[in-house]
Design goal:
The chain has 199 residues and is mostly helical. It has helices spanning 14-30, 37-44, 48-55, 58-83, 87-98, 104-118, 125-130, 133-145, 150-174, 177-191.
């Protein structure tokens, strides 16, 4: 049985970032989690050797694509939080963004890599290191801004992360948009309720 080795870090530079841009765009158009590296290369106008040079392996490429899309989502959440002081409205807008069918291919890939990470595949090490940590701090900060102390903000941030991913996984499997929109709205109201006053 062939061992999957850990991927090499992507080469820094404009060429690598431009290639990653093309791969992300290709994914968003239709997904490629079932495609070979050669098929991905053909779809993005490059060679499989160039993908290996920059990303180490097919798995390394997929991990980098997910990393990029996750970073885009965190930036979107930060931007939404500056548009309104209503935390429920921020949550509603972010859920609508996540529930957009255009993001479904990327989100299916996210959960596919998540499943591999559960089994400790070596190539998922960067994903495991960031899948919680990269989100926990910015979401925790949003709760601190709502008036929660850091300990409570940390608990609510982790709950929010787990609940949102659970709702999204449900949506991808069932397609029950109406009920899940309502569930996401209910969760937003519950988790962002003002902390009780000290009495």
């Amino acid at each position: 049985m062939r061992r999957t080795t850990a991927r090499r870090p992507p080469v820094a530079g404009d060429a690598c970032e431009a290639l990653l841009d093309r791969c992300v765009s290709f994914l968003k158009e239709g997904g490629f989690s079932q495609l070979s590296l050669r098929e991905i290369a053909a779809g993005t106008g490059t060679s499989h050797r160039m993908l290996i040079y920059h990303f180490g392996s097919r798995e390394g490429l997929l991990t980098e694509v997910v990393r990029r899309i996750e970073a885009e989502q965190r930036a979107a959440l930060t931007a939404l939080a500056t548009e309104t002081d209503d935390p429920v409205e921020v949550s509603r807008r972010f859920w609508r963004r996540l529930a957009d069918p255009a993001l479904a291919p990327a989100e299916r890939l996210f959960f596919e890599i998540y499943a591999h990470a559960l089994y400790g595949r070596s190539w998922t090490e960067p994903f495991r290191a960031s899948v919680i940590a990269a989100w926990a701090s910015p979401v925790e900060e949003l709760f601190v801004q709502l008036g929660y102390d850091h300990a409570e903000a940390r608990r609510r941030a982790r709950l929010s992360l787990a609940a949102t991913r659970g709702l999204l996984l449900d949506l991808l499997i069932t397609g029950d948009r109406d009920v899940l929109d309502a569930a996401a709205d209910l969760f937003a109201q519950l988790v962002t309720a003002p902390p009780p006053a000290n009495g």
